Amino acid sequence: MKATVDWTGNASFRATSGSGHSVQMDGPPDHGGENLGPRPMEMLLMGVGGCSAFDVMSILKKSRQDVTACHTELEAERADAVPAVFTKIHLHFVVTGHNLKEKQVERAVSLSAEKYCSASIMLGKAGVEITHSHEIRTAE
Predict the structure, then answer these.
(1) Residue 39 φ/ψ, nearest 5 degrees
(2) Angle at the Cα of 134 (from 132 to 138), degrees rounded to 5?
(3) Pfam families, per this entry (predicted)?
(4) Fold designation for 40-138
């Protein structure tokens, strides 16, 4: 896996993945940024959410659950000192669908957390406390 990051002025950078997709990252105005994109640590948090949500949806599809939406809410805490690393991350999955089975959704979230999500497992091994929760909503 490869990626590049190029400075685009002030505190702004363009990151490009090996698959050719780009995202603009920027610092906050009080650090020379222009708020043109997410901060690098926000990208890391979003990556954890995307990695885990991908796993959850894949597992639910394989277990033939009729999912119509999956919304993942992430909340993180960071250390007060430099480096301001993540100390806690909580992922809350809101899974919407028809006749969803509680055990299947719980299993999908657990498997992502314990076995499949490389991003959250890596951060957990680095000392970040990562927790998960979920709720099921019935599709209209």
Answers:
(1) -75, 155
(2) 165
(3) OsmC
(4) GMP Synthetase; Chain A, domain 3 (3.30.300)
Say if 1-38 and 40-138 have the same CATH topology.
Answer: no
DSSP 110: H
For the domain made up of 1-38, the CATH class stated in words is mainly beta
Domain boundaries, the chain: 1-38, 40-138
How far is Cα 13 from Cα 10, in angstroms, rounded to an integer? 9
Give the CA diameter of the chain.
51
- Tell me the CB-side half-sphere exposure of residue 17, using CA atoms within 13 A: 8
- Quote the tokens at residue 94: 């809101």
Entry pTM: 0.91
Contact between 11 and 26 under an 8 Å Cβ cutoff? The reply is: yes
Do 109 and 134 contact (CB within 8 A), yes or no?
yes
14-56 pLDDT, tens digit each:
999 999 999 999 999 999 999 999 999 999 999 999 999 999 9
Write out pLDDT tens, residues 19-30.
999 999 999 999
Query: The dihedral of CA 39, 45, 46, 48: what is its sign?
Result: positive
